[in-house]
Amino acid sequence: MFKQSANPFTPTFGHVPFALAGRTDYIDDVFGGLANSPGDPNRSTIFVGPRGSGKTVLLTAITREAADLGWVCVDSSARAGMLSTIARRLQKNSEHLLTPPPLSDVVGVQMGPAGFTRRMRDAHPKDEIACIEETVEYLCEHDACILFTVDEVDATCKEFCDFVDLYQYFMRKDLDVALLLAGLPSQVSTLLSDEGISFIRRAFQRPLDRIPLFDVEQALLETIEQNGREIESDALALAASASGGFAFAIQLIGYYLWRQGSATSPLQTADVQQAIDQAKQEMERSIFVPTLRELRPREVEYLCAMLKDTGPSSTSSIAHRMGVSMTNASNLRRRLIEYGVIREVRMGLVEFEMPLIDEYLRTMDSSSNLSRGSTPLERYQSRGVLPLER
């Protein structure tokens, strides 16, 4: 096996790849909004997608480019302590624009002999909200622009909701700020239904759908060729197709592909197939198992019922197979779409959205050691894919 020390493919959390496939339109929209005045709707954008769809990568790529353009960029995630993180990073990333506060105050004047009495400032920080507010207002008064990004949005996080309220205040004051959010479909759905932060419903929603295979091929080819190797056209097409246009899968297949073959020979279909087999194992650990564990048993049963179809599945057929009403099947279908596991192809018909998860479910079903009379759900539970009780 050929070993290359500098693998250009990066299937790691939030790492911007050598060639970012697709997403160009979304990036252009955001920067069009940043170039425009406050109030442009692209300045408040939510990127929505399942695990591995490239949400964090997209935020990282945008903030790097915005920082190069002079924006003060502040990244955070929606979890406890995020306000402290935002306040600290805002100060650090804008320190070149801020006037350092004095370490002490003059509190008295002594006459004969002349002198001053000084008292050290309180070392304890202000309330984080007040600190962020004052810093943003000061920066905007001095013609600075601030871009906030929040990953893994969570409507149940109080600090996140408090920050959204603060951002709305900045918008009312017409300050030069922007906010990019990213989250799982289920979390974004909950967020948009929260009456306490209804303002966020007016943000532009950008679903991170499958990347067109043409763009995938171009990104794979650019990464391989510009790093000194070649790939046969059939092999390139196979690698792109196997990724399903899924951002994480593109990098994962590319990563294992780079480790195949010889440095002096073009990569071939046999190399790609081996890379695909290795990538599937990692997808199982990183994407499929965590996603299935978040689903309810009935939702997994819905997915199992879809496996009987060679093409798109109809809600009525799934309801019949599961022995449930159309209303119940429709509710399950809606939640699975929200999770980004399936998608609607046309009225009443759905197919798997997450690449390779249907193949994984079939493999789990057929490889179980349980009796053939057990349900698919019981077979998955026996292998630790799902908890026994939900």
Could you describe the 3D structure shown?
By secondary structure, this protein is α/β, with parallel strands linked by helices. It folds into 3 domains: 24-100 and 125-207, P-loop containing nucleotide triphosphate hydrolases (Rossmann fold, 3-Layer(aba) Sandwich), CATH 3.40.50.300; 213-290, Helicase, Ruva Protein, domain 3; 295-382, Winged helix-like DNA-binding domain superfamily/Winged helix DNA-binding domain (Arc Repressor Mutant, subunit A), CATH 1.10.10. Helices cover 48% and strands 13% of the residues. It contains 15 helices and 10 strands. A 5-stranded parallel beta sheet has the order 2-5-6-1-7, sandwiched between helices. Strands 8-10-9 form a 3-stranded antiparallel beta sheet. Strands 3-4 form a two-stranded antiparallel ribbon. Strand 5 (146-151), helix 5 (158-172) and strand 6 (177-183) form a beta-alpha-beta unit. Helix 9 (247-258) packs antiparallel against helix 10 (269-294). It is globular and about 65 Å long.
